[in-house]
Write a structure and sequence with these properties.
The structure holds two protein chains of two kinds.
Chain A: H1 10-39, H2 44-57, H3 62-76, H4 87-117, H5 120-128, H6 133-148, H7 150-163, H8 175-185, H9 189-218
Chain B: H1 2-11, E1 18-29, E2 32-43, E3 47-51, H2 58-64, E4 73-78, E5 81-82, H3 88-96, E6 97-100, H4 112-122, H5 128-141, H6 157-169, E7 175-179, H7 187-202, E8 206-210, H8 214-220, E9 223-228, E10 231-236, H9 238-243, H10 248-258
Parallel strand pairs in B: 3-8, 3-9, 6-7, 7-8
Antiparallel strand pairs in B: 1-2, 1-4, 4-5, 9-10
The chains are: A mainly alpha, B alpha/beta.
């Protein structure tokens, strides 16, 4: 019944999906946290930058961002990301760049809502013992903020996992690209889509369950 | 603690007996003029208790001294130096000014011990061992040494507030600000906190205490400052203030709180 899978590197394609997810996840977590820090900073210019970034980036379709990073950054501006001659590696890196930049906007807003759950007295007490703004943020506010936004960040991560399929648009050999190829070549359309749907559930379901458990364990008691 | 201050004094250009000086301080919250032409001088080693009805601006006054609240006009100086604006300078000054809050504000995700060592390590750059030794000594001094490895939520209010005092003391502050330290406590826990504060006062710590505890004001204060409607209405020694208040506003306030 599953003969049609022969000759296709299904695991390789999903492994590419996992790599895109993990690397973009790390990239967007770092960038999103920096953006959240900017949005709560006392410097108006930084706050302004953070606000503009989030409102611009999250309102542009991901496909447009991914295609822009390929067509705009690479083809027009000649950005090579250290992979000038390797088309596949370049597409992979551009996809991570685009996915990170896009997802960072959502991470930023999740983290910022977490920052708002930390009582203002925590930051005041930290400032009162002489910690700088960055120290207050890094040692007192963010550690508490993250613990309260594990659930929304899990949503962002699951969305990111599924969003990696957009990387197919610039030729990254991940799951969705392989699915498209198989649909063109094979007859079992329903089974092909079912297999890929199942593959994504296998990736995202444990993510949700594990992080849900982590979120409960890490909750700050007040 | 006073030993530290004396050596600091020798380095300073302007050695002075006055540790905290507020002159002509004004602050508004929107249309509300919460601090009106406040002049207040606190000498080294002095314990000043600020009392007054709710909304009189006493907490705001306390919070302006380490710039948790900014002021609109006037000047505040600590140990001869004007209060810096934002940035590193301000952080350095805040490290020298201990603050105890009404709602304790212990760092909820850190243990009691970590609460007391954090500032020493991050601000004073003390090494971890030395910071822990000092933290344990301070926790013993305020009577919560046995709770060092618990999290704040596992402690009673009185214990949390004593940890908060230890956290402030760990920075070797020149002055301690207490913003209604017992107002959020259950009645049976108030005394354990007041006793720690009494002991501090006896040890010569310079203290500004905003409180409704008249017993503490009587026994520990060098001076009582009575505030109402954003103004300092009366300043006097506790005996004088409680037995013979001069202003009508103070008489009215005392009659309401003392005679039940």
């Amino acid at each position: 019944m599953f003969d049609f899978l022969e000759g296709y590197d299904l695991l390789g394609a999903f492994w590419m999906t996992v790599k895109l997810t993990v690397l973009s996840g790390i990239g967007s977590l770092v960038l999103g946290t920096v953006l959240a820090g900017m949005r709560v900073s006392p410097v108006p210019l930084m706050r302004g930058f953070g606000t503009v970034y989030v409102n611009v980036v999250r309102n542009i379709p991901l496909t447009v961002i991914i295609v822009f990073s390929s067509v705009g950054l690479a083809d027009v501006f000649g950005m090579t990301l250290g992979a000038a001659d390797d088309f596949d590696a370049l597409a992979f890196r551009l996809a991570i760049l685009g996915l990170s930049a896009y997802t960072a906007a959502f991470v930023c807003e999740a983290v910022r809502s977490g920052i708002n759950t930390v009582p203002v007295g925590q930051a005041e007490a930290a400032r009162a013992i002489g910690l700088s703004f960055t120290q207050v943020l890094m040692t007192i506010v963010l550690p508490q903020a993250f613990r309260s936004v594990i659930a929304p960040l899990t949503n962002v991560l699951i969305a990111l996992t599924k969003n990696t399929t957009v990387a197919a648009a610039i030729g990254v050999a991940e799951a969705a690209l392989l699915m498209k190829e198989m649909i063109e070549n094979e007859a079992q359309l329903f089974l092909i889509t079912a297999v890929f749907a199942f593959g994504f559930v296998v990736l995202t379901l444990p993510t949700g369950l594990i992080l849900g458990w982590v979120g409960k364990r890490m909750a700050v008691k007040r | 603690m006073s030993g530290v201050s004396v050596t600091k004094d020798a380095e300073d250009a302007v050695p002075t007996a006055d540790l905290v000086v507020l002159s002509n301080v004004n602050k508004h919250f929107g249309a509300l003029h919460v601090l009106q032409d406040i002049d207040l001088t606190i000498a080294r080693g002095e314990v000043v208790v600020v009392i007054g009805p709710s909304g009189s601006g006493k907490s705001t006054l306390c919070r302006t001294i380490n710039r948790l609240e900014t002021i609109d006009s006037g000047a505040i100086s600590i140990d001869g130096k004007p209060l810096p604006h934002e940035g590193k300078e301000l952080a350095r000054l805040r490290a020298d000014v201990g603050m105890v809050f009404q709602s304790f504000n212990l760092f909820a995700h850190k243990t009691v011990l970590e609460n007391v060592t954090l500032g020493q390590i991050k601000v004073r750059k003390a090494d971890k061992k030395a910071a822990e030794t000092k933290a344990r000594a301070l926790l013993d001094r305020v009577g919560v040494g046995a709770q060092a490895d618990k999290y704040p939520a596992q402690l009673s209010g009185g214990q949390q507030q004593r940890v908060a005092i230890a956290r402030a003391l760990a920075m070797d502050p020149k002055v301690m600000l207490f913003d209604e330290p017992t107002s959020a406590l259950d009645p049976e826990m108030i005394n354990e906190v007041l006793e720690v504060m009494q002991q501090l006062a006896r040890d010569g710590m310079t203290m500004v205490v905003v409180t409704h505890e008249m017993g503490f004001a009587r026994s520990a204060a060098n001076r009582v400052v009575f505030m109402a409607d954003g103004k300092i209405v009366e300043e006097a020694s506790p005996e004088e203030f409680f037995s013979n208040p001069r202003s009508d506003r103070a008489k009215d306030f005392l009659s309401k709180i003392l005679h039940h």
